[in-house]
Amino acid sequence: MGATWMTKYGARRVRHEPPTLEEALVAAEGLTTDTDQQLQIAAQLMDLPFEEVQLAGRRILAARSRPSRAAPVRSVVGPNQNTVVVERRVSRRATTTRATGTAPVAARR
Question: Which of 26, 37, 66, 95 is most buried as measured by Cβ atoms within 10 A of its Cβ?
């Protein structure tokens, strides 16, 4: 079946949109843990040469592997072993304004 075919209601076409690099890398992460193989899979999913995907893909993968300053996360497994609850603690730090050097009104409590 080609990209266009006839039905009793007229011609129908299928839109082909290759995934973005981020989407292709997420899909490849589920298949393998090797970075080079992930980049090759992403290149194949995007219908692009490996060399084009390699440089940008390595930047994205390196940015993901850096530790973030995110709040601590606690995960709890439910009683039926199928439910996972993830809680994130948000730190409440008072911020100062640049002009006056004082804390904003809402954070002064």
Answer: 26
Average pLDDT over every residue of 18-22:
87
Alpha helices in the chain (DSSP H): 21-29, 35-46, 50-65
Residue 39 lies in a domain: yes
pTM for the whole structure: 0.51
State the total domains in the chain: 1
Residues 43/36, Cβ–Cβ less than 8 Å:
no
Is 64 inside a domain boundary?
Answer: yes
**Residue range(s) defining the domain that contains residue 67:** 13-92
**What is the tens place of the pLDDT at every residue in 34-52?**
989 999 999 999 989 999 9
Phi, psi of 40 (to 5 degrees): -65, -40
